[in-house]
Amino acid sequence: MGDYQKALEFYEKSRQIFEKILPPNSPDLAVSYNNIGAVFNNIGYYTKALECYEKSVEIKEKSQPLNQSDLAISYNNMSQVYSNKGDYPKGLEFSKKALEIFQETLPPHHDLLALPYTWSGRIYRSLKNYQEALRYFEKALEIREHALPEIHPYRAITYSDIGDVHRLMGDYEKALTYHKKALNIQENVKCNPLHCATTYTNLGETYREMKDYPTALIYFQEGLKIREKLPKNHPDLAVIYHNMAKLYFSTGQHNIAMQYIQLAVDIGQEKLCATHAQLLEYRETFEKIRGSN
């Protein structure tokens, strides 16, 4: 999973050195800010991540010669953070900027093109525009199937994204098919464990909605086992706590459900803005569980 604190210390020392010996518009300094931003994003410190990404973009936009593809990657990073913060219009704005540059500078099936399609899809999914989300995810899959090996972990990410949209649209059989395709790759090749945790969580939520609670719990526990290695206030932990709260509520175990939803609300209130859709959902579930006692 990586020692994020050590990574931050290393990248911060590198940045301090670069600022002393390099000109202010050096691409190496932009990379340094980008690396720091990535760590902050991974541990759920989205405001700090955004500050670093903005500094990286500011340097890249002034660099000569301008590296368009590198700039597009930074735009995509900013799209990701804005999406995580719940600012979906800004997220779409930067995702589209990244896509426009990639379309102008890369071959039509270059694997980098899948990045803005993926984040646009996730934003539309969060906005409950599922048909549009599916359109973007399927475009990302088309690119990745053309550009990457059959069992590449990035293809698994897209399978899981598509599966989650099918779940949200109520097509559970299709959802399970895509999630299991993702998991078959992730359990057999080296990949980011957090991506595997997302697939476990998505499978768990699919089975929960199908009312197969024992199977749902197995997958939630697998996802939680991985995500528990994140900082204790990471927003991704709140997601799985919320899922487990809903499961225990459905099975009549209201005291356990309340424990999990309280954890989700506490993290959401600390890490997300007051109007973030996820936090509002956690509070709604909290009130539902509390009202049943």
List keywords for this structure.
293 residues, mainly alpha, Serine Threonine Protein Phosphatase 5, Tetratricopeptide repeat, globular, TPR-like_helical_dom_sf
Overview of the molecule:
- With 293 residues, the chain is mainly alpha-helical.
- Among the domains are: 151-223, Alpha Horseshoe (Serine Threonine Protein Phosphatase 5, Tetratricopeptide repeat), CATH 1.25.40.10; 230-292, Alpha Horseshoe (Serine Threonine Protein Phosphatase 5, Tetratricopeptide repeat), CATH 1.25.40.
- The chain contains 14 helices and no strands.
- Helix 1 (4-21) packs antiparallel against helix 2 (27-42), helix 12 (235-250) runs antiparallel to helix 13 (254-271) and helix 13 (254-271) runs antiparallel to helix 14 (277-292).
- It is globular, with a radius of gyration of 20 Å.
- 45% of the residues are buried.
- The model has no long low-confidence stretch (mean pLDDT 94).
Shape field: globular
- Ends: how far apart? 39 Å
Mean pLDDT, to the nearest integer, reads: 94
The CATH topology of one domain is Serine Threonine Protein Phosphatase 5, Tetratricopeptide repeat
Would you tell me the structural class of the helices and strands?
mainly alpha
Helix content: over 70%
Number of helical stretches of at least 4 residues: 14
Q: Name the poorly predicted regions.
A: none
Order of helices and strands: HHHHHHHHHHHHHH
Name of the CATH superfamily of one domain: Tetratricopeptide repeat domain
Proportion of residues in extended strands? under 5%
Protein name: Tetratricopeptide repeat protein
Pfam families: TPR_10, TPR_12
Keywords: Repeat, TPR repeat
Organism: Rotaria magnacalcarata
